[in-house]
Amino acid sequence: MSRLYQHGTLAMLMGKQMQGTITVAELRQQGDTGIGTLDGLDGEVIILAGEVYQAQSDGQVNHITDPDTLLPFASVHFDAPTQKLPFSSVTFSNLSAQLKTAQLQQVFAAIKFHGDFSHMHVRIAPKQVPPYPSLLSVAENQPEFEAENISGTVVGYFAPQIFNGPTAAGWHVHFLSDDRQFAGHILDFSAEQVTGDLQIFDEFVQHLPIDNPDFRQMTLDFDGLIAGIEASEGGRK
């Protein structure tokens, strides 16, 4: 059995619930690889081999060592690859096409690969303070960064369309450079000399912050929810 664990929902962020509700220590019990964001939507999180990194909206990358650091939303799994990737070069726009034989459209999957990237384009969510704005308004003002000829690791997930709302349907992937100086939520990339793995999950665990009163009292406007998610995620294929 291979399990993907997700704390919080993307719809929750759309509902202005950006407060941290799980600690790094608690999250590590559920996986050693994954992505997320910190309390107040503070940047982009990448988890590799149990180590947690945060890309800040000023472009700085931090190694998060405090186990009590809080996150409102994160997806993690224990790295146990199902198969090697069938390609040695890839772009964001043809990622799904290159994995067509894996038949991902109805399953959750994780991708993790290292490569030499001729181009990497990321965005990073800036930290928010209460009262929190909508995720869509945050997305409209997110700093973007680009790098050329950079080596690093892509990690993230594919989710079926039917789960759009609890999470982001399609690809949601983050990047971390080898020198730990460049990272973020991927909008576009082009890579050569790729090596890595694909992992298919037969179990998706959705964990909710039931002890958080703001979450329990949240009201969600479902009109435009999916369009809002797609706009806030940006660049997913």
UniProtKB/TrEMBL annotation:
<dbReference type="Pfam" id="PF03306">
    <property type="entry name" value="AAL_decarboxy"/>
</dbReference>
<dbReference type="InterPro" id="IPR005128">
    <property type="entry name" value="Acetolactate_a_deCO2ase"/>
</dbReference>
<protein>
    <recommendedName>
        <fullName>Alpha-acetolactate decarboxylase</fullName>
        <ecNumber>4.1.1.5</ecNumber>
    </recommendedName>
</protein>
<comment type="similarity">
    <text>Belongs to the alpha-acetolactate decarboxylase family.</text>
</comment>
<comment type="pathway">
    <text>Polyol metabolism; (R,R)-butane-2,3-diol biosynthesis; (R,R)-butane-2,3-diol from pyruvate: step 2/3.</text>
</comment>
<dbReference type="GO" id="GO:0047605">
    <property type="term" value="F:acetolactate decarboxylase activity"/>
</dbReference>
<keyword id="KW-0210">Decarboxylase</keyword>
<keyword id="KW-0456">Lyase</keyword>
<keyword id="KW-0005">Acetoin biosynthesis</keyword>
